[in-house]
Amino acid sequence: MGLITLENVSKIYDGDVRALDDVSLEIKHGEWVSIMGPSGSGKSTMLNLIGCMDTPSKGVVKIDGIDISKLNKKELTKVRREKIGLVFQQFHLVPYLTAVENVMVAQYYHSMADEEEALKALERVGLGHRANHLPKELSGGEQQRVCIARALINYPKLILADEPTGNLDKENEQIVVDLFEELHRQGHSILMVTHDPKVGQLAQRQIILEHGKKLESNK
Ligand code: ADP
Ligand code: ADP
After folding, report:
1. What phi and psi, each to the nearest 5 degrees, are found at residue 167?
2. Which structural domains are found in the chain, ordered by start?
């Protein structure tokens, strides 16, 4: 059984905008898949569905065996927290909290903030020594690694990343890419939207979206 399964999924927004059009897809445990495609092709819509931030208009989305199509907001949030770590292009760090506090924020939602766990997550991204620094004292790459630590705090099976290197220079991009490769080796599944063909090629499979349709995927 796949970790993520989409069966004939469509997402139709108001005004009959078919953002996703009859897309089927399976992502296996431990697989790294990239999603590419022009602006407006449905990439964000797909991430929102798989990230349990929205539900499909038609079809079935299953996360680790759970059909999320009929879940309410509260139930969706629970699946997201247990299964998925989210990483975005924008860092969304709280500017007045230190690195370790920013990682703990993910846990406040569980009301079980644990500094030790947050420190462990920072160590996993190689930033244990920067735990008490504010975001503005960190480079762009370090800030993104704090965000990845925040995504890792609950040991998610799937890391869902939306243009994670989009705001980084070449050097920091390489550091973040190396980190994703390490997380993949450790067994995390990764689904990454990227515009950068070099980053996209690191995945075992590339899915290309165009006008809401899945065009092709190699291998
Ligand atoms: P991408 O991430 O590839 O740029 P999106 O998933 O954001 O594509 O958008 C796919 C299509 O759906 C676009 O035509 C976009 O304008 C439309 N769309 C996205 N979100 C909404 C929304 N909330 N309401 C209406 N149309 C939307
Ligand atoms: P934008 O979101 O406008 O694209 P970036 O996210 O690339 O900009 O951030 C630009 C700079 O602003 C970063 O290098 C960092 O120094 C600072 N910065 C960004 N986000 C934060 C934040 N949440 N807290 C503190 N500083 C931040």
Report:
1. -105, 15
2. 31-55+72-217 (3.40.50.300)
